[in-house]
Amino acid sequence: MQKSCVLVFLWFSFFCLSSASTKPNVLFILVDDLGARDLSNEGSTFYETPNIDRIAQEGMKFTRGYATCQVCSPSRASILTGKYPTNHGITEYIGGPVGAHHRKRGRYDSHLPPDYEGNLKASEITLAEAMQDAGYHTFFAGKWHLGGRGSWPTDHGFKINRGGWDVGGPRGGFFSPYHQPQPRILDPKENP
């Protein structure tokens, strides 16, 4: 039986069909702070990215995407829901300052930012939920930063979650011992 798989790197997510299908594989890669020319398939002569280059050559590449916000949480929420930040309510990175707290952090803008949603709402229909409805199994790994317990990837359509949680990065670092929920603990023999 052939499997059709989808990887979504919204941080890194994986969708798989369990039965034979003609549905395409999908890989979505989202990287914080990646420059337009930081990949070798985009013209970088400094960085070598042969695996990403191969994926780009074998698949479909979208070259005119624009972020809905300059910070991470609103952009990811927009990708997952297909909505602008003002419509899903996450208009700042979750944990970012608002109102008078904004001034305490040394920022003196003429307009203070409004309150925002602290979690991706359960009522939002996400890309992962739509993929599940289409018969895909879903997997997520990496940066989530779209809310606390009750608003993790598994609460928004991802069947398996490895590392996605409240904050933008792993507390304690990227190496064992991990201080994040549901990490994949590698046997030391597996490490390169």
Descriptive notes:
This protein has 192 residues and is an alpha/beta fold. The chain has one domain (4-30, 66-190). Helix content is 19%, strand content 12%. It has five helices and five strands, in the order E-E-E-H-H-H-H-H-E-E. A five-stranded mixed sheet has the order 3-1-2-4-5, with helices on one face. The longest helix has 10 residues, at 72-81. The protein is globular and about 50 Å long. The two termini are 32 Å apart. The model is unreliable at 1-12 (pLDDT under 50).
Topology, element by element:
Elements: E1 4-9, E2 13-17, E3 27-29, H1 50-58, H2 72-81, H3 85-88, H4 99-104, H5 127-133, E4 136-141, E5 160-162
Parallel strand pairs: 1-3, 4-5
Antiparallel strand pairs: 1-2, 2-4
Q: Mean pLDDT score, rounded?
A: 77
**Spatial ordering of strands, largest sheet:** 3-1-2-4-5
Which range does the strand content fall in? 5-15%
What structural category characterises the helix and strand content?
alpha/beta
Helix content: 10-25%
Number of domains: 1
Shape: globular
- Terminal CA distance reads 32 Å
Poorly predicted tracts of residues: 1-12
* SS field, number of helical segments: 5
